Amino acid sequence: MRRNYQNIPRYVPHAASGYALNQNESQYPLPERLERAIRDVSLEALSRYPVEELLALKASYADYAGVEPTQLMVGSGSDELLAILSQAILDTEDRVVAPAPDFSMYGIYTQIARGHFTQPDEQGLRYETLIEVIRATEPKLVLISNPNNPTGKMWTLDELSDIATRVPYLVVDEAYIDFTMKDSFVSRLSEYPNVIILRTLSKAFGLANLRIGFMIASEEIIEQIDRFRSPFNVSGLSAAVANVVLRDETYIQESIQFHTAQREKLTELLRPIGEILPSRANFIYVKTDDSEGWASRFLDKGVHVRAFPDGLRVSAGTDEAYALIQQTIEEVNSVENS
Ligand SMILES: Cc1ncc(COP(=O)(O)O)c(C=O)c1O
């Protein structure tokens, strides 16, 4: 085994029974028409390595994202693309910076690629703090989710552009950008050719099980990073199913409308717990000193949420889950008032 391999945390996924509002998955049910269309996906090519399906998927997604297919790489989730790009960009001990808090896998992929990961100690979502850390650390790569996971904070395009001028590579991870349909860095990509954008079908498109993510960058960067991808990294069956969903004209709008309405309901519901941070994603962050306490009370009712040191991240869910959240909050209030 590699020296110090134990320092790399192990991510062990587990199935959540009950209502899973802890993983930011889509809760919008796949419409009947799409289920039917997916059943028609041909199994004829099952014995062949996937090529055609991936070309078709790139063409559809390029159309959706407003870029050229040559500016895309497809991965088994954006997770795999983070792993690939870290291997491609980093030499041993190269430094990587991310805001704090941010997506937990950034540090793990940096370690796997033998890089050195730094996040601000405090006030880690302030632009000025991030700039200070970048000045002090001189990283080769900065990783930023926008909207931020877990808080929903949006970095402005001007802030991201400024960061791009300070470092060799900036990754803007837009896993949740589809929920807002604006402020994607794609509009500035041609001006900042050192920026790499990550997207996924796991969130607004509701296809986490297919494991499909996209890297969007200049043709030159894609050509360079593609050398670090294993040749058939994405299942053709997944690509074919994704293509059916991407070609549907209204599905993504329906999903966004559903999640926006459910996010607004959730905001009202969680207000008694603490300050709600503004979010345009499919989750909200509520500040509380008792995050572990709330998470375990919700879990007693079968609702999974994610606790952080100073708050809870709760994904937009269904009305059934919300009824249980409301019940929990009312029970706590009635004990406090008695
Ligand atoms: C910010 C962010 N980036 C990337 C991912 C990975 O998504 P996937 O590998 O399913 O595309 C997630 C998943 O939760 C995420 O929150």
Fraction of residues in β-strands? 5-15%
First-last Cα distance? 58 Å
Biggest sheet details: 7 strands, mixed
Order of helices and strands: EHHEHEHEHEHEEEHHHEHEEEH
Bound molecules: pyridoxal-5'-phosphate
In the sheet with the most strands, the strands line up as 2-8-7-6-5-3-4
In the predicted model, the low-confidence regions spanning at least 5 consecutive residues are none
As a percent range, the share of helical residues equals 25-40%
Query: What's the shape?
Result: globular
- The rounded Rg comes to 20 Å
CATH architecture of the largest domain: 3-Layer(aba) Sandwich
The CATH superfamily of the largest domain is known as Type I PLP-dependent aspartate aminotransferase-like (Major domain)
Instruction: State the total count of DSSP E strands.
Output: 12
**Structural domains: how many:** 2
GO biological process, one term: L-histidine biosynthetic process
InterPro entries: Aminotransferase_I/II_large, HistidinolP_aminotransfase, PyrdxlP-dep_Trfase, PyrdxlP-dep_Trfase_major, PyrdxlP-dep_Trfase_small
Enzyme class: transferase
Family: Belongs to the class-II pyridoxal-phosphate-dependent aminotransferase family. Histidinol-phosphate aminotransferase subfamily.
